[in-house]
Amino acid sequence: MRQRMDSLQVIRTLAFLGIFASHSGITAFNSGGAWGVSVFLILSGFLMTYSYLGTERITDKSIKSSFRFGVGKIKKLYPLHIVTMLLAVPFLIYEYRSHAGLGKIITPAVKLVLNVALVQSWIPKSGFYFSLNAVSWYLSTSLFLYMTFPFILFGMKRYKKGIKTAIIIISVTYIIQILLAFLAYVVNINLIHDDDFIHWFPYIFPLSRLEDFIIGCNLGYIFMNHRNEEKGSDQKVYTIAEIGVVAIIIVQWILYLTKIYIPSKADPPVPTSNWWGLTVLWTMSSCALVYLFALKRGKLSQLLSNKALIFIGNMSANGFLIHQMVYRYLNSFEKKLFGQSNNYINLLICFAITMASAYLWDKTINRFHKKKETPNDNLKIMTHSS
Question: To 5 degrees, how large is the angle CA 42–CA 344–CA 362?
Fold first, then answer.
């Protein structure tokens, strides 16, 4: 197993904090959600390539083995997904309390089944892809992406021109991402007229997010084949590059918040953030951020690689699934008690509860897995590692 890169845990932390803050209801943080998801997906592809390229850990690319590989990648988070889903059931019941007929039972049941099977992100309706614990759509999409990874890995192993091929794949994939996102925008304006669709197609739909994942995988390929050639570069150059990328991301956040418009026939004009702000705005800057922090040659990446941020990064997967439910219960409690909630206070309270819950869950799961290991299991692990 390759050495863990703590600087990338910092990137995971920043992405998680962006997503976490975007769900607080504070307008200034609205950009964080789309940006954080972009970083997560590209980082995921990058790390998968870093872990598996040049090894014999994946030897089969059949559909059956790829499915098992994908399930294996999300199985540690699946119990937490079920727990948070069940915590969301009271909200689902409350939502359908006034409905009449069979729909009152059938629709919630369908949503439960879709979430248990982790296929909700394939349904182009927000009532389904954001059902129960809304953020679990990401786990649904990730399951599909992990299933595709063995095929992507075998494809990268056959690159004849190495890094040049990876750069071409990234460029072509990014162009496709732009074109498909814009096509969804045009189709929505002229035919569908459904906000759910324009949000779903570029942002939620697993096949659309495969573009980010492929880009991340190829970025990892470039890193694995080029990092040793950059050792002689001046630290100042990398520091300036890191600060420059962060500055670009800040500008992008402002662009997203101010909602720049592209001239359209619609009256009033349709916000361009409905397509470019959800995906293509963030792709290249996310790539640059991940790559530079993976190198860890600048002072910014070195400064941020501290124990506190690394700890949050380690807990971010659990915190991601937990935080939405903490927000919902906290807001409900405050509204019943005080008639309203304070988003700024909730941001701090929710973060504390989320981190504590994520840590306790992590400890509980690790302890459970240790109890399940028999002496023979430990022997196998020791033999394999040696």
Answer: 50
* Buried-state track 129-140, b at ≥16 Cβ within 10 A, e below 16: bbbbbbbbbbbb
Tell me the residue type at 359: Y
Domain limits, the chain:
6-385
pTM for the predicted model, two decimal places: 0.90
> Whose structure tokens read 């972009």?
38
The 3-class secondary structure across the chain, one letter per residue, is CCCCCHHHHHHHHHHHHHHHHHCCCCHHHCHHHHHHHHHHHHHHHHHHHHHHCCCCCCCCCCHHHHHHHHHHHHCCCHHHHHHHHHHHHHHHHHHCCCCCCCHHHHHHHHHHHHHHHCCHHHCCCHHHHCCCCHHHHHHHHHHHHHHHHHHHHHHHHCCCCCHHHHHHHHHHHHHHHHHHHHHHHHHHHHHHCCHHHHHHHHHCCHHHHHHHHHHHHHHHHHHHHHHHHHCCCCHHHHHHHHHHHHHHHHHHHHHHHHCCECCCCCCCCCEHHHCCCCCCCCHHHHHHHHHHHHHCCCHHHHHHCCHHHHHHHHHHHHHHHHHHHHHHHHHHHHHHHHCCCCHHHHHHHHHHHHHHHHHHHHHHHHHHHHHHCCHHHHHHHHHHHC
Contact by Cβ (8 Å): 63, 310 = no
What pairs with residue 271 in β-bridges? 261
Asked if residues 132 and 89 have their Cβ atoms less than 8 Å apart, the reply is: yes
User: pLDDT of the chain along its 386 residues, tens only?
Assistant: 577 889 999 999 999 999 999 999 998 898 999 999 999 999 999 999 999 998 989 988 899 999 999 999 999 999 999 999 999 999 999 999 888 788 789 999 999 999 999 999 999 999 999 999 999 999 999 999 999 999 999 999 999 999 999 999 999 999 999 999 999 988 888 888 888 898 899 999 999 999 999 999 999 999 999 876 656 568 899 999 999 999 999 999 998 888 654 444 555 445 444 678 889 999 999 999 999 999 999 999 999 999 999 999 999 999 999 999 999 999 999 888 888 888 899 999 999 999 999 999 999 988 887 776 555 544 343 333 33
